[in-house]
Amino acid sequence: MKLSLAMIAAAHAGKPEDRAAVRAEKRMRADKRQSFKPLRYVYQFPFCKSIDQCVHEDNPECDGELFTNASGSISHRGYEDYFNCRWEIKADKGNTVGLKFYNDFDLEYHKACGFDRVHIRCLDDPSFDSKGGKPISRLCGPLDRSLDYAYDALKIMPKKSFFKESTDTKCRHVLIEFDTDQDTQGMSDYTGFTLGYYQQPGDNPKPDGPCDGTGIFKISSCLSDGARAAGNAYFDKMVAEASGKLKKKLLRIKDKRLENIERHVTNYMAKMMATISRCGRGFSAEFSDNFYSTMKSAVASKDPAEMFSAWNLFAINTLTGDGVSCGWYNGNGDDAIEESSFPCRTRRLFLKMMGLTQWGAYTECDASNFDVDDNSIF
After folding, report:
1. Parallel, antiparallel, or unpaired: how do β-strands 84-90 and 95-101 relate?
2. Can you list the pairs that 19-27 forms with residues at least 24 positions away whose Cβ atoms lie under 8 Å?
3. Do 88 and 173 form a contact (C-beta atoms < 8 A)?
4. Does one domain contain both 76 and 174?
5. pLDDT 10s digits, 174-212
6. If you compute the radius of gyration of the chain from its CA atoms, what whole number of angstroms results?
7. At which of 174, 201, 228 does a domain end?
8. Among 6, 113, 292, 300, which is 20 to 30 Å from 50 by CA?
9. Residues 6+ apart with CB under 8 A from 269
10. 264-305, pLDDT tens digit by residue?
């Protein structure tokens, strides 16, 4: 305080040209504040009132779109000043939209996320129509660019929502806005964001079969039901081919064996889905038509080996590739697969179904025998 007063006194007591320089500096700062009006970072309403308003010839970088598919992603990298874009995601009736950011999230930081930000809004509630939708999150930063999650200025959602794991917005129609201000404080290396989206089944899902429809939740139900059926069918085959004491033993333990199959499949899929939710694209992973046909063929076969292959294809689609941070196979050689990895755990699950690990038998999961392209039960 004393130092500041001394400097002011010195400025007043100095030469006229020194005092003029101080006044000029003050005027320059005042002019700068005027040119960067706070209106630019209030962000109470969307800058684009519709997708069509954002997507036009004067704004070629904006690829705004309405998405209605089961899952996908929105990405904007290397963004410019004064940029505005919006995307909308609309789930089927009875479903809601879930989101998961993956890869890095790198925008300019501001304590109110007022410079550059991704704003997530819900368009379900008509009472918020005049405000551009009900706010869910306003994301920017973080201040420490080494962190793997954004700063949320609204703080409506729990911390790290949409980053730590796949998160349900509880909203059927979601608006994603991306707006930037007039400068990046001299920095041009902000890399933007990638956002995965998916449809989360509601409390009353459609009354179709587990292998009908698309999306990660349908796939997990289909694979689980298929694995249980394959385990039961294989046990019945073992009984039919057995004789004497072995047949009597199998019949005696049948109920317990089928109960174990149910428990193993249910617990394993739950662990797998929890891992998928946290890692990389989360529940927003996309699947080809070929994957769905392969999965349905494996389920129809009731063959544990074919079901093993289908489960590993599911893991390949969700736990490998772009942005994955805790997958089971990272392409760095045989050492990438360990005894606790998903190929080995999936293999043990199906070997149990086939009776090959019963009564103390155990076969080591040798990573060198696993080929992600061959995908056999080795």
Report:
1. unpaired
2. none
3. yes
4. yes
5. 999 998 876 655 566 788 899 999 999 977 666 677 788
6. 28
7. 201
8. 113
9. 220, 223, 224
10. 889 889 888 988 898 888 999 999 999 999 999 999 999 888
